Amino acid sequence: MFLYFAEGLPNVIVSNASVAFYTTMGMSLPEMARLTSLLYLPWALKALWSPAVEALGTRRGWILFCISSFSLAFLLLAFAPFTSNWALVSAGLFWIVGFSSATFDIAADGFYMCALDEKSQAFFVGIRNSFYRLAVLFAQGGLLVFAGYAAREFGGVRVGWALAFGLCALTSFVCAAMLFGFLPKPDSDRKAEPKSAGEFLSETAGAFSSFFARRGIFYILFFILFYRFAESQLVKIVQPFLLAARADGGLELSLESVGLVYGVAAPIALFGGGILGGIAISRKSLKSMLWTMALFMNVPNIVYVYLAFAQPQSIFIISAAVVVEQFGYGFGFAGYMMYLIFASRGGHKTSHYAICTAFMALGLMLPGAISGDMQAYLGGYVNFFLWVLAGTLVSFLATAAAYKSFGNSDFAK
Fold first, then answer.
1. Are residues 177 and 223 in the same domain?
2. Does a structural domain hold residue 383?
3. What is the pTM of this model?
């Protein structure tokens, strides 16, 4: 349980909490969107060094090294708000967290498969996902609530975030201590047989070449990159929108309220949508459900047009709207993740899946990077959310492309 809580914590801090951090520290929306999108680069590149994690050392050793690295980076982040170049210093530390976390992902997933037999893997998959989701609730919800409370009670935004990152470091160090003490040492987790540089490069090149040579690769890549085109822009602007003053078109919620709405209620809805999406695919098929899932992913984005236009005061109405959108996203995302498994089938499954997740990260990072500029160019939140709705057409084109790649595959039926 500590392994997957520790896996989720840095991922959510970099991808989500950083948005609230830079927004409340006064960074402009376009700068924040570009910077926080670039922070996701390690997950887009991790396929490049995943073979090295498999070939060098043990997975347990990589896990312990990585959690030590990002725990220390969290501790240093507690001091970053007080430095003169706080944006540059914090970005560098977030990148350390990101590269350590992306490498941790590779090692943890490999460790799970080598430490447990198939029956045990199936038994623990729910527990594994639950503790990852618990990390999401902590980092996306509890940490924001704590940062807002500490800022109000102990001297401002900088102090609030310093204490929040300190709490994050303490939590991470506790996880590290538990993993150092209790993480098993399975016989199957051993150093790989030494290989020459030529053999290593040849195997890596073979994995990449076989992936890009597969049937329908253009359609596969188009779907992976653009299925979340609208959502990838939306996710960077939602928190600033919730925090922005009403005079600027926002909803002017406190950081604590954003933590409760977007950090607690939203992840629960996302989790519920994901579970129901998985059940729907298992009972029918990926191919029969994908259009429905694309609709669930994109149509609920209209709630943000309403929120930006009406600017309701009721926290219940705001929460209900966010919950509807996040439930739809969770349902639609289940189809996306199942498609990645479909696209990774055949030889080199592990490497192919890593490549797919790298393109998945690019599909999140690139549209997100332009979202702040689009909001500024369009002149406000109402027009931006209308732009997001228009962007759903790209997502539907990507869904049509996915059907071109299915062919006669039994997996998708």
1. no
2. yes
3. 0.86
Q: Report the distance separating Cα 269 and Cα 325, nearest Å.
A: 9
Pair (95, 207) in one structural domain: no
With a cut of 50, say whether residue 9 has pLDDT above it: yes
pLDDT tens digit sequence for 133-143: 788 888 888 89
- Cα dihedral sign for 121, 124, 128, 129? positive
CATH of the domain at 292: 1.20.1250.20
Is 67 inside a domain boundary? yes
4-38 in b/e form (b: 16+ CB < 10 A) is bbbbbbbbbbbbbbbbbbbbbbebebbebbbbbbb
Does residue 195 lie in a domain region?
no
pLDDT tens-digit readout, 56-90: 778 889 999 999 999 999 999 999 999 999 999 99
Whether residue 249 contacts residue 305, with contact meaning beta carbons closer than 8 Å, is answered with: no
One-letter amino acid at 345 equals R
Considering the domain boundaries, does residue 381 fall inside one?
A: yes
Give, in order, the Cα–Cα distances in Å from 255 to each of 219, 244, 260, 324.
41, 11, 9, 21
Which pair of tokens denotes residue 397? Answer: 């084109």
pLDDT surpasses 70 at 381? yes
Domain limits for position 51: 1-184
Number of domains comprising the chain: 2
Q: What is the pLDDT of residue 247?
A: 93
Q: Are residues 222 and 360 in the same domain?
A: yes
- pLDDT tier at 410, thresholds 50, 70, 90: very low
pLDDT of 225 > 60? The answer is yes
